[in-house]
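Table S2 (continued). Query chain:
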Amino acid sequence: MIKKLYHFYQYQLPLRAKMLITHLILALIPAMLITNFAYNQMITVTTNTTLRSLNTLADQTRANIATTVEQLSTMADSVCGDEFFSSYIYTSLPEQYDHIFDLEGGLHTLENLLASYENSSIVSNVRIYMDDSHYRELRKRTKNPIFETLHPARGTYWHGIFSSTNNNELLCPPMYLSPTEIDTLGTHAVIRRIRSVQSECYVVIYFNQSTIQPILLQDLPYNNSVIYITNSRNEIVASTNTMLSGTYYIPYNEITQQIPSTSRQEKLQFAGENVYCGCKIIPGTDWIMVSAVPESNLTSEGSRLVLNFLFVYALVVIVCILISQGLSRSITGRVSKVVENMQQVRQSKLPSRMDDPVGSDEISSLIDSYNYMSDEINRLVTKQQETANELRHSEFRALQAQINPHFLYNTLDMINWMAQSGETAHVSEAVNLLSRFYRITLSRGSSIITVREELEHVTLYVQLQNMRFNDKIHFFIDVPDEMLDYTIPKLIFQPIVENSILHGILEKPVKEGNIVIMGWMEDETLVFVISDDGVGIPPEKLETILSGNGASSKGSNIAISNTHKRIRLCYGSEYGLRYRSKPGYETEVEIRIPANGESLDLPPMMMHHDCSVPL
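Corresponding output:
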């Protein structure tokens, strides 16, 4: 195999390709070795550096969240420790409080404190839920919505937690709050419970996830990574991405097992994907902050560096290729041009003449000989085309000549029949119709007429036939106005309609029927369909009708065959007639003609929308 490749490289490969491959091998092999080494080193370095950076950011985030939670807890504690409020709540008979203390002054001071908390950037709302007796007494002196009865709180999850435990402090995620609280007050809360023998009270400092979310987002280096906070009840307190936190979720009691150190990230697997996970415990809470960064994010940084290196090296390779191409072109350019032109001849294309050679070396002599050969071949091909076009021209005239006598014979036979029948009153009308008919047929010597004229032509023909057959032919035309000014070869519709009458409708027992001409555009093609409800055409005759070999008791199909051949001679084999018939019911003829009216390569006298010589 090595010998064969070497032989192919040395003796069969073109010189230009040989030089190009040699330069590429010399450039790419070192690049591959260097890239492989650089990639491994860069991945290791960038991964370690990024992980250290992530751990530092996580420490800062933990401290910021702890500070925020501590501020909220301090606010709740200050309310609970307010001298007026604590004294009032512990009073068993709040209605007698005003006789002992300054209720109005203490309430005013408390309201100012709570208002300052509500105006804080980290607090969304403050609520104090208390028993009915304390609430009614305060309600006499203030309408402040901060004070509420215990009724809204008793249906919440957090109230159930307090009822089942001895805890007096609770940090609530959204799952603990009621929908009404989340919608109107806040998504999270810090709650303090005050209990006495006679009463129960809850101080609730509400805040939104927007208080924590920006802090978490500061530690989010990649779009498809996530940071979430979970509590001891396995509830997601906050998350930068709800979907990803579910994907990379670690149960609360397993976090410290899977991530034993809070100072470094551990590589874990989630659904077969390697993910670097780190955790930080939020002081003063039961919260743990977990960060999850897919390994692909870390390796992508090294990959980008390698790609930058490869991009620079690719530029160097391109420069080498350009230099190689310039060298090979200076040596093999003229020979390659001769070879390319000769290959065109092998592909049945006409040879193109090269520029006259500059110089007198062997390659110049080769180009001169090639130009002589090219001139001779083009001359012979031109002569052959002229001969072929003349032959096509003669065939076209012969085909069209067969149509006119055929139609004239049938029409004169009809007029003769009318005269013999004594219908002299209609002979003048018939002659007038026939005169107009032949005026369109001759059309000043042109073989191309508009669709409008062709439809008028076939309408005159049907009128002549109806004069003979007592209006038994019901004729309908449905062709859009925008098609009427397109040009087509004349005598296209009349032979088909004639066949529909003689071999379709008149073969029926009732000697009466319908003929419909419809037209539409398909891209750049004119499509006409002529249908009749005559006796139809048997399958064996349908196969021969376009070839002209079929025959009937009333004549041959030569007019139909000639019409089909005329269109194909003018425009190509993809155009012409197509018959479909259901014996006993109907016949349908589809005619396809190009809308641009450009004919095939005919002699000059047949161009310009004229597919034959004058009649």
